[in-house]
Write a structure and sequence with these properties.
CATH superfamily of the largest domain: BT2081, beta-jelly-roll domain
Largest sheet: 7 strands, antiparallel
Distance between the termini: 21 Å
Radius of gyration: 24 Å
CATH topology of the largest domain: Jelly Rolls
Number of helices: 2
CATH class of the largest domain: Mainly Beta
Amino acid sequence: MKTKQLLLTLALALAIALNVKAQSIPNGNFETWTSTIFENPQNYVWSSNSDGFRNGMPFNVVKSTDAYHGNYSVQMTTQIANGDTMPGIFVNVDPKNGNPALWRGGFAYNQKASGMRGYYKSAIATPDTGFVFVFFYKAGVMIGQYGYYFHGTHSSYTPFAFSFNPALPQAPDTIVFGAGSSNYNRTKNMRSGSMLMLDSISFTGVSSQPALLNGDFETWQNTTINEPANWFLQGGGGGTNLTGGVFKTTDAKAGNYAIELITFEGNRNNSIVAQAGNISTGWYQNNCNSNCQEQGGYPFSNQIDTLAFWFKYAPSGNDKGQVSLNFKKNGANIGGPGASLSASTNYQYMEIPFNLGQVPDSVMVDIQSSQWQDSLLSYVGSDLKIDEMHFKSQKLSTGIFTFQNENSVTVFPNPSNEKLTISVHENTGKDIYMDILNTLGQQILSERISGQSGTISLDISQFKEGIYFLRMTSDNKSFYDKKIIVTR
C-alpha cells in the first residue's frame, strides 16, 4: 500500500537527514513489537481494523452506544491517510481470497431466507456507497449472492429491507455476511469520512436466525495484534491470522521474544495456494506485475560482511524456509545472497557471508517460512522461528551505551492522541533527551530525563494525525528510535 512505501522512504530519508548511523537490521532480535487491542463484533473474525493498525490509521470499525435497539450498534467509517483509502469493513470469514467463491468458513445455517432487513444511519458522500452483502453456500459451492447499497445522509435510524432476487434455489448449509462504509469495488468513488451504522440485522421469511449472526451487535470480542517494529509484513491474511502468518513468540534463543512465520492458505490468481509468512525490511509496489523491484531498506555500506542469526524450522513435507539479502546502490539493485533453511527442532546458528562487487548504500532483508515456488497446500503449516539476526560487523544492542535489553524502554500508548508516556527502566548514568521529529526530520518537541531511570509524559494533543519519530539521544549521539502514530 502507498502508506508502507511512504513510511520506508521517510525512514530512510530521516536517517540520512539526521546523519545517524542507522542499524542495518533494526530490531533484529525481535524484542520490540507494536501491539494493540481492538474490538470486533462477536463471531466476525476479520475487520479493517487490523489493516488500519498496520498502516497507521485509526480503527474504523467500532462499537457505538448510539443503538436502535439494545445497548450497541456497529459503526464503520472510511479513513484516508497518507494517500491510502481504508473503508470500514467487517466480515465473518477471512477474506484474503479475493474471490468469494473460494472463501472458507462462515455461519452454519440451513433455512431458505427470502431477504434481509435492518436499521441504519449514514453520512455517505456522493458518489460513495455503503453496503451489506450475504453469500449462501451448499457443500462448499456458492448458491446465491446478494447485496444492498446505502446512499446519502440519514441522521436517525432508518429501516431497510431487500429481497433475494432471484430466490435461493435451495436451502444452504453456510452463510457469509459482511458490511462496509464504502464500496471497495469502486475505489475512485470512496470518500473520507463516509459513515455507516447498522443495528438489528435479520433474515426474512424464516422461523429462526443463524445462531452466530449477532445481528443486534450486542456482543463484542477483543482482538490483539502484534507487529515487529521496523519490519514490514509482505503477506495478506485475516481471521485469526491478522498479520499474514507473522507472530510474536516467546520461544526465543535470547531475550524475551523471537519472530515466528507460518505458511497459510492464500490466494493467487483466484486459486487457493500455500502462502509463506513473510517479513522484510523492504517492500514491493502494488500492481507492479512482472517488473517488481524491492524498495526501501536501511543504510548499509559494508562490501564484505556476514549475516548471522539463529533459527528453528518445522516444515510441512519437504518445504524449506528462506532468508535473502538484497543490496542497492543509488536505487539500483546489486543483488545479494540467500540461504535455504532445513528442519531443525532446536535453535541452529546460521551465517550467510557475502563479498559484493561494489560498495552498497542500503540493504533489505527478507525472511519467509516457505520457498516462493512452494504453493501446494501440503506446505501449509510450515513454521519458522528466527532470533538474534545481525551483521557480524555490528553489535546486537540498542545503542551507544548498552541497555540490558530493548524492554528497558517502553513507549505507550502507541497509537496515541493525547499523551505519550516514555519510561526508562534502567539507570544509564547519563542525561537522556527525548525528541519528537516529524517526517521531514524537524524537531517539534524535546524533553529530558536526568541520568537515572524515570518516566516522562509528552503532550501530543496538538499534533496533527500522522507518523512521527521518537529519537532518544545522549552525549549528542542517537541510541534509540521508534515510530510514533498519532490518531485523531
